[in-house]
Amino acid sequence: MSKIIVRGGRTLTGTVRVHGAKNSVLPILAASLLAEQGSSVIHDVPALDDVKNILQVLAALGVYAKHQDDSVRLNAESLTAYEAPYELVRKMRASFLVMGPLLARLGKVRISLPGGCAIGTRPIDQHLKGFEAMGAEIGFGQGSIEAKVNGKLRGARIYLDIASVGATENIMMAATTAVGTTVIENAAKEPEIVDLANYLNAMGARVRGAGTGVIRIEGVERLCAAEHQVIPDRVEAGTYMVAAAITGGDVYVEGAIRDHLGPIIAKLEEMGVQVDCDENGIRVCALKPLRAVDVKTLPYPGFPTDMQAQMMTLLLVADGTSIITETVFENRFMHVDELIKMGAEIKVDGRTAIVTGGVKLSGASVAATDLRAGAALICAALAADGSTEIGGIHHIERGYVSIVNKLADLGADIYRAPSPEEVLEESEKAALQPDKLMKQFEQRAAASAEVVIRNIQPTLA
Ligand SMILES: CC(=O)N[C@H]1[C@@H](OP(=O)(O)OP(=O)(O)OC[C@H]2O[C@@H](n3ccc(=O)[nH]c3=O)[C@H](O)[C@@H]2O)O[C@H](CO)[C@@H](O)[C@@H]1O
Ligand SMILES: C=C(OP(=O)(O)O)C(=O)O
């Protein structure tokens, strides 16, 4: 199993650049299915496992897609397949976002039910309620869900019981070519919704009100390909802001947008972190002792649930006791047990966590249970005494491009120890003997070499 190894205690300084937002690019790539003519070009697409997955889903549906450097070119002119393959869908919940575009474009779609995940059950009833209101018939069978419509979808007024990000996106995409106008009430207001609406409008759609609680989509005849630049990832930015603060560092997060990070900036400032914003990014400087604060996650513009775990680690090093309330997902405290292994004092009662600050963290062997839990473990490890080995890093690699290199460039003592399988695969690619390649890894590992050798020696022997 590959691992990330961190030896804590280094102060982070310098500049880190934020990549395009995972949560924008996934719906935007799905929306490319709607283009009946031409090739879309999407810029600042992060090279993440989730992006690879959705591109495979699109390819299986008949879309030509090429990811080169930071851009993806997609052509969906010859789209015919309406079934997203189970093997790909099960890897990533966001595959469900192809449902709205396929229903709009082909009038039918079949997809496996996405199921729950570590952070909660994550039902899709609000997506389906929207499609049904627009005239789709929904059927279930053999773990799959099928939706079809006679002719075209029809515009409808849809009130979401929960301001769901995915449901807002799926319904918005489905409504672009419906007959008549669709109104989504209690719509999600996240910046990623606005980014998707901007792309859809560039394709010829008429979406108004994205970023507010009421979105109106006037159906048009057809959409064509368009060029689009994805917004910077606010969660990635927030994670580096926390990483800087937890090490008492001074870091400029290039590309971070102040308006997207309001609640994170507010909480950091309440804690005593100095935050300076300009048009190109945000500087975080944490020279003084930090104060405890309470945090409650909420849909945008509230404090993002995707930053809750990372924020918890920062509260561990603050003076005083903090209360964190998680209102978005019912099971998003999986990182707590791992943090306790590192010396944290946290008590969880339902959706509330009571965090005792000022406890000394020490390195341990821990495992990421989901993407942001993994990011939080890295933040905690940066502040801990000694060495932390983090497993389950495939979760982290779903959502952070080159996190190890970016933190190392800021001065962290961090290394990614490859799994034995990765070493063998790499050695085959590089036509090198595994032991020679291992030597290279050892050299790169420098401070953490002994851990790397421990990890890969058994299989190579
Ligand atoms: C790819 C992507 O963009 N992922 C983000 C998106 O996920 P996602 O779009 O899945 O999140 P939602 O906003 O839909 O979910 C919010 C809450 O609503 C519930 N719910 C949702 C839909 C539904 O039909 N019924 C229902 O009950 C969910 O279980 C959850 O408790 O928004 C979340 C909330 O900001 C983020 O944490 C995820 O990073
Ligand atoms: C929960 C997240 O993503 P997803 O919805 O893709 O699981 C996340 O980005 O933290």
TrEMBL record:
Its biological purpose: Cell wall formation. Adds enolpyruvyl to UDP-N-acetylglucosamine.
HAMAP family: MurA (MF_00111)
Pathway assigned to this chain's UniProt record: Cell wall biogenesis; peptidoglycan biosynthesis
Family to which this protein belongs: Belongs to the EPSP synthase family. MurA subfamily.
Lineage: Bacteria, Bacillati, Bacillota, Bacilli, Bacillales
GO terms, molecular function: UDP-N-acetylglucosamine 1-carboxyvinyltransferase activity
EC annotation from Swiss-Prot or TrEMBL: 2.5.1.7
Protein's UniProt name: UDP-N-acetylglucosamine 1-carboxyvinyltransferase
2-(S-cysteinyl)pyruvic acid O-phosphothioketal PTM sites in chain numbering: 117
The Enolpyruvate transferase domain, residue ranges: 7-407
Gene transcribed to yield this protein: murA
Keyword Cell wall biogenesis/degradation carried by entry: yes
Chain residues that bind phosphoenolpyruvate: 22-23
Reactions listed under catalytic activity: phosphoenolpyruvate + UDP-N-acetyl-alpha-D-glucosamine = UDP-N-acetyl-3-O-(1-carboxyvinyl)-alpha-D-glucosamine + phosphate
